[in-house]
Write a structure and sequence with these properties.
single chain; 322 residues; alpha/beta; Spore Coat Polysaccharide Biosynthesis Protein SpsA, Chain A; 9-stranded mixed beta sheet; two-stranded antiparallel sheet; 11 helices; 41% helix
């Protein structure tokens, strides 16, 4: 079985060695090519990668081109039938051979595996495609009340114990069939940070490919590790936070992530639909301010939440008037 393993790093020195060692430990029987694409790291990442010279192939970029571009470079440099994308802040903790039985099935284009938090708990990794309905439910706190319905699906409260077809899986660890990816086009490089895997899965679905989750292999994901180091070197991102279910669920306001949100909805639904999305975000922030206002009198936490949602209101108001 041939497999291209692609890791995109950016200031990932505290994670990458453990990540690579987990591959060597759990993929011994695979004919694999490990490619690390480094997005202009400023820390010790490249020095660590030098230790693995001969065991991995790595490409050093002079400029941070983003996750999508880094993945595409790795995909183009490889030739294996199957591809595994792995975040540098993730490490395998099981054999992955069983995944290929599923990937070999006709019209299966992507497989996601069980993703665990460092404490062993399940990390949500499968989601319904974001649309006005999912955003409305999340913005109005309805996801915590109506836990299972056709609008948001049951992914948030699912135990990830069985194999099933899903809408999309997160890119922290995902397996791709090269034939499928090349048939619809690689990652859209207009996404710099977040949203690219959602877009790819949607394009695959539209072209008849299936996205599956398998519980038969697992990976531990630190969560936003690369993002945290990204923030260290990009001051404009220091106040941001990402929740992947609908891109902006609990996001601390920043325009950089919003660019991905706006691009996704404009690309797949049009500018008028983006107006509706912005309106829902605006109303949702008003609702959350109303909820937080009484609590802010007694809690510093809710004072910060209040400020955060006020910033979002001002931003979305600008977008609505644009």
């Amino acid at each position: 079985m041939e497999l291209d393993i692609i890791i995109v790093t950016h200031n990932s020195s505290i994670f990458i060695e453990k990540c690579l060692n987990s591959i060597f430990e759990n993929c011994k029987d695979l004919n694999k090519k490990i490619q690390v694409i480094d997005n202009a790291s400023k820390d010790n990442t490249c020095n660590i990668l030098e230790k693995f010279k001969g065991e991995i192939h790595f490409t050093t970029l002079e400029k941070n081109l983003g996750f999508a571009s880094g993945c595409n470079i790795g995909i183009r440099q490889g030739s294996s039938e199957f591809i595994m994308l792995l975040n540098p802040d993730a490490y395998l903790n099981s054999d992955i051979n069983s995944i290929f039985n599923l990937l070999n099935e006709k019209r299966v284009g992507v497989v996601g595996i069980k993703i665990l938090n460092p404490d062993g708990s399940i990390q949500q990794s499968c989601y319904k495609f974001p649309d006005a309905g999912t955003i409305f439910f999340d913005s109005m706190y309805l996801t915590n009340i109506l836990k299972r319905n056709r609008i948001i699906g049951d992914y948030k409260y699912w135990n990830y114990s069985y194999e099933r077809e899903v809408d999309w899986v997160i890119g922290a660890c995902m397996f791709l069939k090269r034939q499928a990816v090349e048939s619809v086009g690689l990652f859209d490089e207009n996404f710099f940070l977040y949203g690219e895997e959602t877009d790819l899965c949607l394009r695959l679905k539209k072209n008849g490919w299936k996205i599956f989750f398998s519980p038969h292999a697992s990976v531990v994901h630190i969560g936003r590790g690369s993002y945290q180091t990204f923030c260290r070197y990009h001051p404009s991102m220091k106040d941001s936070h990402y929740h992947s279910s609908i891109f902006i669920s609990d996001i601390k306001f920043n325009e950089n992530v919003y660019k991905s949100i706006a691009y996704y909805f404009t690309k797949h639904y049009g500018r008028k639909y983006l107006f509706l999305v912005n309106l829902i975000f605006f109303i949702g922030s008003l609702w959350r301010i109303a909820f937080s206002l009484p609590l802010a009198i007694f809690s510093e936490k809710y004072k910060n939440i209040l400020i955060y949602h006020w910033r979002r209101i001002m931003f979305y108001l600008t977008e609505l008037l644009y």
